[in-house]
Amino acid sequence: MTEKTLTFLTIILFNFVSTEIVQALSHSRFQTGIHGFRAQASFKEKYFIQSLDHFNFNAMGNGTFLQRYLITDEYWKAGYGPIFFYTGNEGDIWEFALNTGFLIELAAQQDALLIFAEHRYYGKSLPFGNNSFNLDKIGLLTVEQAIADYAVMISMLKHELAATDCPVIVFGGSYGGMLSVYMRIKYPNLVTGALAASAPILSVAGLGDPGQFFRDVTSDFENIVPECRDAVKGAFHQLKELGELQDYMKIQSAFTLCKRPSSAQDIQQLNGLLRNAFTLMAMLDYPYSTHFMGNMPANPVKVACDTMLRGADLLANLRDSAGIVYNSSGVLTCFDLNSLFVKCADPTGCGLGFNSLAWDYQACTEINLCYESNNITDMFPAMTFSETERMEYCSKRWGVIPRPDWLKIQFWGNALSTASNIIFSNGDLDPWANGGVRKSLSSALIAINISGGAHHLDLRGSNDADPASVIKARKTEADLITYWVQTARTMRSKQHLL
Predict the structure, then answer these.
(1) pLDDT at residue 496 tops 80
(2) Which of 6, 105, 141, 408 is buried most, with the most CB atoms less than 10 Å from its CB?
(3) Is 313 a catalytic residue?
């Protein structure tokens, strides 16, 4: 994708003459929706001509880039129904649209227009194409630029679609949920309300205990059976002993590694890969199989515990538990340490490819992810990631110095009491949950806790295997959103009468 140099006037005139690729979203696992009907949708893929820099009029020659978004008016009562806008997060926007069926069900119920917007520097929304991650180009990747993108897109699309009186509700999961909160805080003139699912807005602002995350991952496995935690901890201890003996041949054999490790650094990389597998299984511990961030069986935490406790060979059990994540297809004949896992500024994992570069940069600037495992309160090897280590890594990798307190300053941290119309939903199986808002702060800042819920389970489409808690949560969310929309319409009607 090449850099554009169109003026802002051109953006206004031509933001809808972009490429349209019609693709169908087929939800084969959709079951009865929140109000007794099935819902699926076909989205059009479009590109919005977006400003490169919203905050410096002299920068980049007023340049633009093509920002991808998905849209469907299949259920929309044109000019009247609300607009449901998904604030895309750190990945390809189709990945989130395919795994956020609740919005489609809700759009069908409430006659809404549905838009999924892709985050700049992710998916196909690369401002400078493959050069976007060069040091002189990546500086435009910030939370502030991203939510400004969404604000401009909402404003322009409302005008283009003759939807100026339609209330906008923003939705997001995880980092996308954080962005939904920030949208409501920064652009209440555009956004009526926000549903932030599994949004760790406190922990990423440096608030809380850095040992909490991996302690909560451990709890998920421990709650299946305490022996599972002990088996995982024991396996890592055996690996540590082999590493100290420099018995790299046995480590390679035990873990079926493609290349023999040769240093303590290689063993640390292996520890990171293995810890990341357990992190993903805890996050995605859904009661049915999924194809989100890879392929995962139903109840993967239980599957892993069954694997860890199947016999006396703990290293083989640890390898095969990690294989639930890294070799779900069973086609890998060996594990490549450096291609399956990339060490970065996010100890919970950055993913792979260009998306991992973008997230690594964000974790080096605004997003504070100094989480550590200690082998005392959790079952993992002691792996530190202090502010000093973060600063050293980020300075070397990206030439930047992190701002540990910036999110507390810019987006209020835990001082949210004057905000309104935000739902904070969290599942108790999700290790990100305790980094978010777990208690309601007011009648307009509602916390919903979902027993038996993994990472933003409530945003997924209805499924026969759903626990009763998530069915209840979605009903509460739908009712609150209905109320927000009705209230916004009433206020707009009164304004028209003045």
Answers:
(1) no
(2) 105
(3) no
